[in-house]
Amino acid sequence: MTHATDTHTALTAPRRRRFTASERQVSVIRHLVLMSFALVVLFPFFWIVSAAFKTQIDLLMGKVLFTPNLDGFLDVIFDKTSDFARNFANSMVIGLISTFLVLVIATLAAFSLYRLQWPAWVLHSLLGWSVIFHMVPPITLAGAWFTMFRSVGLDNSYTGIILAHTTLHLPMALWMMGVFVRDVPKELVEAAQIDGAKVPQILWHVVLPIVRPGLAATGILTFIFSWNEFPVVLVLSQRQTATVPLGIGKYAQENTIAFTEMAAASTLSILPAFLLLLFAQRFIVRGLTSGAVK
Predict the structure, then answer these.
(1) Is residue 210 over pLDDT 90?
(2) What is the pTM of this model?
(3) 95-137: pLDDT as tens digits
(4) Over the stretch 165-207, which tens digit does the pLDDT of each residue have?
(5) Do 51 and 59 touch, CB atoms closer than 8 A?
(6) Which helix (H) or strand (E) holds 147?
(7) First vs last C-alpha separation in the chain
C-alpha cells in the first residue's frame, strides 16, 4: 500500500524543469553583473561608514586594516562645540512636519482633480505648471523666499523653512498621489455617494484605505528629500535652525577638514532614512493586501 502511494505521489508531483548548461551560464553572468552594480552603488556607503571608525591619521594614510574607534562619533555627539545634535533635531522636526503637510495637501488636491469633475484644462494646466515648477532649481527661489520671509518676520524660523520645503516637494507628491487616487475604482466612490456619504467621509473611509501604499511611498520620498535639502536651508537658516546637511558641511573649513567627524556625522544622518525604509517596506505590503479588500 505504501509503495503504491509513493508511486502515485511521484507520478502526480510536478516535475522540476532542468536548466541547460547555457541557461545556467546566462544566470551566473546575470547575477555577477547585478552584484557588480550593487558593489559600485554600495562602495561609497561602506567607505564612509569605515572612515567614521578610523582616526584622522589612518584615514589620510589610506589604511585598509585599522583598529576601530568611536572618537569621531563622540566628538560629533558630545563635543561642546558641536551642534550636530541640534541639527539632527531640526532636520527631524522640519522633515516630519513638511512631509505631513505635503501628504495632506497632495491627497486633497489629487482627490479634487480626479474625482470632483473638474474640466480637463484645469487638470492639465495644474499638473503642467507643477512639472515646470519642479524643474526650477531650488537655489533660484531661495533669495526671493529669504526676502519675503524677512519682511513678515519668518527669517531664520522653523515656519519659514517648513513652508519652503512643503512648496518644493508638493509638485512631486501631487503627481504621485494623483496616480494612486486615479486608480481608485469609480464604482466605490459612486456607491458611497449613493449611500449618502459626504466628501470627507468618502475620502476617509473609501479612498485613504486604498491609497495607503501611495501615501507611504510619497511620504518616504518627501521626507528623504527634505532631510537631504541643502541650498534652500543654507539661505534661510542660521545656527539655531540649521539642519543635518549644513551640520556636515561645517566640518569642511577653509584651513582644515575634519574627515573623521564628517564621516561620523554622515553615518548618523543615514539612520533615519534607513529605519524609515525598513518600516515602510512592511507597511506598503500590508497596505496593498488590506486596502484593496476594504
Answers:
(1) no
(2) 0.82
(3) 999 999 999 999 999 988 888 778 888 888 888 888 888 888 8
(4) 999 999 999 998 888 888 888 888 888 888 888 888 888 888 8
(5) yes
(6) helix 138-151
(7) 49
C-beta atoms surrounding 120 within 10 Å? 7
Percentages of the chain per state (helix, strand, coil), in multiples of 5: 80, 0, 20
The full 3-state SS of 196-230, as one line of letters, equals: CCCHHHHHHHHHHHHHHHHHHHHHHHHHHHHHHCC
Encoded amino acid at 209, one letter: P
Q: What pLDDT score was predicted for residue 282?
A: 65
| Grid cell digits, residue 269 | 544622518
Task: Provide DSSP, 42-98.
Answer: HHHHHHHHHHHTS-HHHHHHT-SS-----HHHHHHHH-TT--HHHHHHHHHHHHHHH
Res 264: pLDDT: 92
In angstroms, the CA 47 to CA 247 distance is: 20
CA nearest to 98, candidates 213, 211, 212, 219 = 219
Domains of the chain: 82-291 (1.10.3720.10)
Tell me: the pLDDT tens digits for 149-166? Answer: 999 988 889 999 999 999
CA-to-CA dists, residue 293 to 56, 250, 253, angstroms:
56, 50, 56
Alpha-carbon distance of 140 to 120, in angstroms, equals: 31
* Number of helical (H) and strand (E) elements in the chain, helices listed first: 14, 0
Angle between helices 259-291 and 21-52 (to 10 degrees): 130
- Amino acid, single-letter form, for residue 272: P
